[in-house]
Design a protein that fits this description.
This protein is α/β, with parallel strands linked by helices and about 240 residues long. The protein has 10 helices and 10 strands. The strands form 2 sheets. A 6-stranded mixed beta sheet has the order 6-7-8-3-9-10, sandwiched between helices. It has a 4-stranded antiparallel beta sheet with strand order 2-1-4-5, with helices on one face. It binds adenosine-5'-triphosphate.
């Protein structure tokens, strides 16, 4: 089943067209990566998906419904959850309160305590630091908190914008191992924007390469990894 379908999407800022006629699909349980150089339009695509930016053309369908004009906060309630670039956790609140705020949007009748226990089980580092102010976490811990907070709202599709930014290589590996585990064990669909193409393609099922606002190459992770253009531009081959 298709979870997310983007068709003929164009978007930009004033006269700047940042995304031009993009088609992209994420199927149930699929891990899809969106690659591309600086300024290619990756973040712009994510902004349209999370409702921060209105597209100039095209449509976004989520779980079979047109959400092109749906307000951003309603999208999260439906299960389309975005971990933006820069993380956006609440620095003056504890780790625990940040997680509770993540669960806040969630439907009535759900069991927040069970979700919290699950997050602490998944990210033991956060359990150890549950009383610590989020603003004092290390970069890697803050990124884990941002992902855990997003998971508290029980997403059907988790969108992540460059979660590796500013993290040491070992922390990137750790975070990606968590993402991979979530994807496998919960069948969670993931759309990951990433500049670290080699690592991302090792995790993903499929991928798209965006160049100057257009999809330049698409295919399975194996196809992209063996594509000579992708190798030359993104894999340093
Ligand atoms: P990066 O990997 O560097 O984050 P990206 O692929 O996410 O890049 P976008 O942030 O989507 O790229 O930017 C696409 C284009 O839109 C770029 O040319 C950028 O300069 C331009 N752009 C982005 N935000 C704005 C804005 N608020 N106003 C004007 N132009 C913008």
């Amino acid at each position: 089943m298709t979870i997310l379908q983007i068709s003929g999407l164009s978007a930009g800022y004033g006269a700047v067209r940042a995304v031009d006629d993009v088609d992209l699909v994420v199927n149930e349980g699929e891990f899809v990566v969106l690659l591309g150089p600086n300024g290619a339009g990756k973040t712009t695509t994510m902004k349209v998906l999370s409702g921060l930016l209105t597209p100039s053309a095209g449509a976004v369908q989520f779980l079979g419904q047109d959400i092109t004009k749906l307000a951003g906060w309603r999208r999260a309630g439906r299960g389309l959850v975005h971990v933006p670039e820069g993380r956006q956790i609440f620095p003056d609140h504890s780790v625990h309160d940040n997680l509770l705020l993540g669960g806040f949007a969630h439907r009535r009748g759900s069991n927040t305590q069970t979700d919290l226990d699950e997050m602490y089980g998944l990210f033991p580092r956060l359990a150890e630091r549950r009383a610590q102010l989020a603003g004092t976490l290390s970069g890697g811990e803050a990124q884990m908190l941002a992902v855990a907070r997003a998971l508290m709202s029980r997403p059907k599709l988790l969108m992540l914008d460059e979660p590796s930014l500013g993290l040491a290589p070992l922390k990137v590996a750790e975070l990606f191992a968590y993402l991979s585990q979530l994807h496998r064990e919960r069948n969670l669909a993931i759309l990951l924007v990433e500049q670290q193409a080699r690592t991302a393609l090792q995790l993903a099922d499929r991928g798209y390469v965006l160049e100057r606002g257009r999809i330049a190459v698409e295919g399975t992770a194996a196809e992209l990894t063996s594509d000579s253009r992708v190798q030359a531009a993104y894999l340093g081959a």
